[in-house]
Design brief:
Blueprint: H1 2-19, E1 66-71, H2 79-92, E2 94-99, H3 105-117, E3 124-126, H4 140-153, E4 159-161, H5 164-167, H6 185-194, E5 198-200, H7 219-224, H8 236-249, E6 255-257, H9 267-276, E7 280-283, H10 288-291, H11 295-304, E8 309-310, H12 321-329, H13 354-368
Parallel strand pairs: 1-2, 2-3, 4-5, 5-6, 6-7, 7-8
This protein binds zinc ion.
């Protein structure tokens, strides 16, 4: 009798305890309620030095020459700035940098001329942009398509669309312009006609759309950057639905989804999208932390979809590229990432074979971007 009563009390205590656990929390221990004897460090202060001893293989320079399909530089670039950029390119074995911030019209033309006049032939190229300043009304698409046509003829090698589309660009009536708005059809079709890719950044990491509480994986980043908080307004899934409608409607246009389409955290979903739409490709820019925390799944994904993934880095920081080389080329374990607000965890190498590395580093970019210089690459 006493034993039954005790069991009931234990059960009554245990059930709510389990139910109250928040994501990521381990099961409470008997000493629950105990407080640290010393003031706990903040997440910025706590920097434990790993006691793990494993072989280290840093990769300061990529094994094969690389095309960075996702970079941002000033347009037009000044000669001394280009000298500085080139130093970092040489150190990393970056053969071609695709500057996605080419602009349009006069700026783009001056950008192309500056590169032509520079001493580094064919080492940097420009993608054009759409002029989304102001609102989008009837006729916008035709005008933008005409501008793009001129810009491609002037030497732009593709189109880059920034994340404003879907989140901030407005229609003349004040509504948000959906990514799949028919007004933009003429733009996507112009790229198909010229056989140049559209590198497009739609939405933001899924965590940016979730509540800013202590279960949010990007809490620190969101706390640091107010403009990355999207807890209200258009939702993540809505943006992806519109993006996929656009992709489906334009099968002859090649879309390189920046940042892995924000699916690097869900490779099953990433694979489904590639299976569904043969005109979709991914760049790996700024999502290294997701590959590096699931090395076995990433390895298999990069092998399976080796013709669909392009190297890109986004912000140009020469000392950050070696983290990419190390993840892609080695099987190193539990090493540091470079930005604490992207990821508070460690990375693992995914050890890609040479044939896959070559496609990731340059061959897929050459295939998608006919304007790039095709001479002098290692055979694949
Ligand atoms: Zn970018």
């Amino acid at each position: 009798m006493r034993r039954t009563a005790l069991a009931l009390i234990v059960l009554a205590l245990a059930v709510p305890l389990v139910a109250q656990q928040t994501p990521g929390q381990i099961r409470p221990r008997p000493a629950e309620g105990r407080e640290p004897e010393f003031k706990a460090p903040t997440i910025r202060e706590y920097r434990p030095k790993s006691q793990l001893v494993t072989p280290q293989h840093p990769v300061p320079r990529a094994k094969f020459p690389v095309i960075d399909i996702h970079s941002h530089q000033r347009t037009p670039i000044a000669p001394d700035e280009y000298d500085r950029v080139m130093k970092g390119m040489e150190a990393n074995n970056l053969q071609i940098l695709v500057n996605l911030s080419g602009g349009f019209g006069d700026q783009l033309h001056r950008g192309v001329e500056a590169l032509k006049a520079s001493k580094y032939k064919d080492r940097m190229v420009l993608f054009a942009n759409i002029n989304f300043s102001g609102s989008v009304g009837p006729g916008f698409g035709a005008t933008a398509a005409k501008q793009l046509d001129d810009d491609l003829k002037a030497g732009a090698m593709g189109l880059k669309v920034f994340k404003d589309l879907g989140m901030f660009v407005k229609k003349t009536n004040g509504d948000r312009l959906p990514v799949d708005d028919p007004e933009l059809d003429a733009v996507w079709e112009t790229c198909a006609r010229h056989n140049v890719p559209v590198l497009i950044h739609i939405a933001e990491p899924p965590a940016f759309f979730e509540p800013l509480d202590y279960t949010n994986e990007r809490w620190l980043e969101l706390a640091l950057y107010p403009d990355r908080r999207h807890q209200t307004g258009v939702r993540f899934e809505q943006l992806l639905t519109e993006r996929n409608n656009m992709i489906r409607k334009h099968p002859n246009t090649k879309f390189i989804l920046a940042h892995f389409g924000w699916h690097a955290n869900d490779l099953t979903r990433a694979g489904k999208l590639l299976d569904q739409y043969p005109n979709v490709y991914y760049d790996v820019a700024a999502v290294l932390y997701d590959f590096g925390r699931q090395p076995r799944a990433s390895h298999d994904f990069f092998v399976k979809y080796q013709d669909r993934i392009l190297f890109g880095k986004d912000s140009y920081q020469p000392d950050e590229y070696p983290y990419y080389w190390r993840v892609f080329e080695t099987n190193d374990e539990y090493f540091d990432y470079y930005r604490d607000y992207h990821a508070f965890w460690k990375l693992y190498g995914i050890g890609l074979p040479d044939a896959v590395l070559k496609k990731l580093y340059y061959a897929n970019a050459l295939k998608l971007t006919p304007g790039l210089s095709h001479a002098g690459w290692p055979s694949t």
